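Researcher: Please generate the 3D structure of the following complex. Treat every line as part of one assembly.
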Amino acid sequence: MVSRLMEKGIPCRKLEELGFKKYRCKVCGSVFWSKVPRETCGDAPCERYRFLDIGCRRLGYEESMKEFLQFFERNGHKVIDPRPVVARWREDLYLTIASIVLFQPHVTSGMVPPPANPLVVAQPCIRLEDIDNVGLTMGRHLTNFIMGGHHAFNYPDKWVYWIDETVDYAYRFFVEDLRVPEEEITFKESWWEGGGNAGPAFEVAIGGLEVATLVFMQYSVENGKYLEMPIKVVDTGYGIERIAWLASKGVTAFHVIYGDLVHHFFVKLGVDEPSEDILRAALVESYGVDSVEDLAEKVSRDLGVSSKEVASMLRRAVEVFSLLDLTKTIALMLSDGVVPSNSGEGYLARLVIRRALRKISALGSDVKLGELVDLQIEKWYHLFPRMGKMRSYILEVLDIEEEKFREIIKSLPQIAKKFLKKQPSLEDLVELYDSRGVPPDMLAEYLRKVHGIAIDVPKNFYSMVAARHARTPLAKKSEKARLPNEIVEWTKNFPPTRRLFHEDPYLREFRSKVLGVLGNYVVLDATAFYPEGGGQLGDTGEICYGSECVKVVDTQKVGDVVVHVVERPISIAPGAEIVGKVDWERRYRLMRHHTATHLLLGALRKVLGEHVWQAGAEKTPTKARLDVTHYKIPSVDELKSIEKLVNEMITKGIHVVTKELDRNEAEERYGFVIYQGGVPQTARIRIVEIPGWDVEACFGTHVKNTSELGGFHIVNVEKIADGVVRFEYVAGTALIDYVSELEQKLSDIATAVGSSKREVADKVRSMVGELRNANSLLKAYRDLIVREVTSKASYEARDYVSGTKIFVYKLPVKDYRLANMISRELTQKIPRLIAFVLAPHEKGCYVEISLGKEAASLVDARSIIKELAKRLPIKGGGKHDHVTAIAEVPMTEFVNVLEKALSTDLIKAS
RNA sequence: GGGCCGGUAGCUCAGCCUGGAAGAGCGCUCGGUUCGCACCCGAGAGGUCCCGGGUUCAAAUCCCGGCCGGUCCA
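Model: Done. Output below.
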């Protein structure tokens, strides 16, 4: 399909006008355009790196970014602000991996207009797929980079620009603005796909370095089929780091991006900086190498020096380079409020942090990760002000993460013990990594250094781990089907329901017309019943028609249509008028809990920090709960001040503002915090604002004034996952209910322990003391009885066959533990003894048979049970000198049978 | 969201596979040794084996469910 779409190549008159011609690369075979005839496409690896030898304007890193933005601004593009590196506006993506991500899916689908058209943005992006190559390629691979993107959205009725103009901009930017000789530039024809869209693309390369990709997005990909998009999108990505590299002639991209910081890092980490010769050679050779050894060999061959020395120097330098990159990625992610955790984007943050910590420890340095990240914050906060604002959060979180890492290191000696004598199997290594986070190379190094033991770590270790996590297809988390499929289909026949509950959240009774009824599902033209959504439960109440009323047990929505679920199937003709009555007591509780949730979230962000982000919520009539991202359970003091803040907001009586805004306007005015509760897929967004406190995109019903909550109390706080804290709380009438329920419980306890509410705590304390006493008394009494019985046995035990002795003791209470103690002690003291200790049991009689050392050498206790089993129903077993059993006859009968058996042939010396 | 590992004395853990009186080291208390301390020696206290259910004569151990912690991967 793609090849057919690409068959004709990319039509571009502009390149022809500029005098470019098509060629085919001798190495990779792809088609490319060039001003002068050439053998290869100009991109590495087909062509060696030459870009440092190509003349052009001299620009630094930030200058290059500004130059890019200004060039497009001069050419009619509006510069828009970059967004966070965490893609909060998207449910299908954790990180911002490209500038086009800002506009998918709502702009590319046509639902929302772009904030400007055409526009240009310098968007910080994070991509983790090359994390293992960072450093080794001298800066071609990075986990964070700035993508310069100019975008045009072409609508059928409003065309902006397309291929020719896009190519022209690229040509003019590089040739006229940066003054790169035009014969050095190639445009390679290619195909791009991502985020459900696809289209042909030009890859722009200069001296072996790909500097930009120009994508002409025109297909949406559905089930492997390419469908023509109504909106054609120009999606370009200029690598700002690479452009700066070309323009500044830095020896590695790290020197270009980080400047002085490179030297600081080398010094802090105690690593020698390789000479420029070595780095330059490394850069040229870095394409296609997959290990430092490989690279070092090639470099030393080029320079004619010892490869061993080069290898150790390069290995350490590569780690420093990658730490430069990783620490900036960490600063970016954490400053956008990611909380490290074991799932979601939090895991990605932890992954990068762990990687960085491992590298620091591999270098043998004791520098704290926080120190390195702090250097990055200092360098970058003028570009990314959030880094400055979030600094204390970032450093605290890194401390915690570093501590967790140290715990893993601390466990090494313990783990290593197991492998002192035996080689760990691959299975051992995988399990250690998978379940305890111990990377095999760390274990290998420990064993080598401390115990001088070498172990094998297979080269393909990480792919073995991956195989263990056999990929399951990404099950799209669908909303729990609250309505049967046929009902969902049926609702598609109706127009959007008028939302009286939004027009007036206090409306309890209303008249409206029936649009349709199917069984016990009712659709009206307008309703005051709130349908479940945004964590607020659907309303209940009743619908009356004529003289008849039916209970509404639930309200749901499908798209814009509200569906009332009634108690029993009814039949009302479409067009009939009904009266709807909302269960107001319940609904008002829900409303107050909903507003309380917004108040709490605002307070949490104030007290705990702006990294606090809603991770889930539920409001019921009796209780509400809110899950947020946070890295530890809040302290008692923090909880107190959170509760106090919320109650102050209630006392102040703040007016709650609700309005509808265009999506772009809402985002621009309030930022992405409005998407705490989820991202609505609509062009217009309903905003609920508690001025100065909290703003959220929210569908729910809220009280007019915070004073209506009356009061607020947090009833429970728990960590439900690493990095997620759950708050449960009550407000309004639910608070009163909670208190009286609590009081009732207290009085129940007081009654049960025979005390007053006032003194119940003391009473319970003394009871626990008494229980402890009773237990130690019980122990003492048991010992006493054991002694008594033992001394009784010493003269009461009677002689039996082969020099053995017999003693039968009937314990009158169901204390099997004591029975055990007695039988053990008896045979311990009298080695020739065969002891029978009996105790009552529901089924009859509990039997414990124990043999002293000498007796056990003559008789097997298990055979005694076998013999008895021939004479009465008994089940049991144990070891040769001790068995336990249950006989299903009363104790007296058991004794009779036992005595009779003893006098015949129960026990035969073996 | 999925996989895996773990929860036993104040702490670090063994025991679990293969069911049969709850263990070790460190720490604590007391005593000995010592001018005193450390070391050493001896004795002792300290456990709802995470919770609930099941299987069994018998469960820390086997099975099921839950809770909590850790970790890897999306």
